Amino acid sequence: MSRNTKLLNLPNILTLARVAAVPVVLVLMMVESKTTCFWATVVFSLAAITDWLDGYLARKWEVVTVLGKFLDPLADKLIVMVALIMLIPHDRAPAWAVFLILAREIVVTGLRSIASSEGIVIAASPLGKYKTIFQMVAIVGLLLHYRYYWFFGVKLDILYPSFHNVGIFFFYISLILTLWSGGDYLAKFFKVIAK
Question: Can you give the pTM of this predicted structure?
Fold first, then answer.
């Protein structure tokens, strides 16, 4: 198999599609409307699905590439960061909490790069996976934001919860998991470096 064929496999194409989704979510979130928020949610959700799918296919088909290893976490961070940052001006997520989440991602990525350059592999904690799942669910809720009434315009407030409230609930859980997993990674990093 040629090098180009290895690089242009379906998992890598899905990862590149996730990168391409970043400016789409950005542009859609620049306008505050129920319609643009809905479509931003659709694009973000599809990108989140590809996050799982590309890794699954790469392992199943044994087409794990250096490009894929580099792009996959980058694509994840970009789509999450742009969504969180664009939620701030719409008052859907507190800026201080978004700052903590982004700061954790930058610090852990930096430490991971340092460890990698020294030939050290620090095992990822399951907390990181849970953090990502809760972040994705939270962002979907916060992007949707509004109440959606689908029964011929009849307002059924009791049956239809505010997506914002659902999103913010998962957001704070994801914040706790983000800080917890970040602290766990820091502890592992300094334990390994101290040896």
Answer: 0.84
